[in-house]
Description:
This protein is α+β, with helices and mostly antiparallel strands. It has helices at residues 11-23, 56-67; strands at residues 28-33, 36-41, 74-76, 81-84, 100-101, 106-112, 115-120, 125-130, 137-138, 143-147.
Amino acid sequence: MSDKTKKTIDAKPIKDLAKILDDLSLTEISYSDGDFSVSVSKAAVAQTIASAPTQTKSNQEENKETDFNNDPRAIKSPMVGTVYLQPEPGANKFVDIGSQIKSGQTLLIIEAMKTMNPIESSLQGKVLKILVENEQAVEFGQPLMLIG
């Protein structure tokens, strides 16, 4: 192998991303800059929670939330990041449950890599349910809201 084809990998950016991954409790993170691109992911560890008879209702509600993944009314996260339901601290939320939504209207912001990304509705209708909390970490494809 010649020196021209042999490349060395700088582990520092990978270690930095792995630290961010752990600090923010994420399962996957990607970064690219010009020709350089790196992705780091880890397997999610499943937690088993013993349920008492009084928890049956909350377990059913939890299972319903996972059903929103295939719901056509769901607005899903296009990226990994942190959700902000208002434009700045102390301001009114972009939308509330019951708000009438037009296609293209900003619903919330997702911060990813220090960039604020407005998430616009691809649907028209009324906000039926907000599935995330302010400043919550979200994954790619995670349902954020239901619009009906």
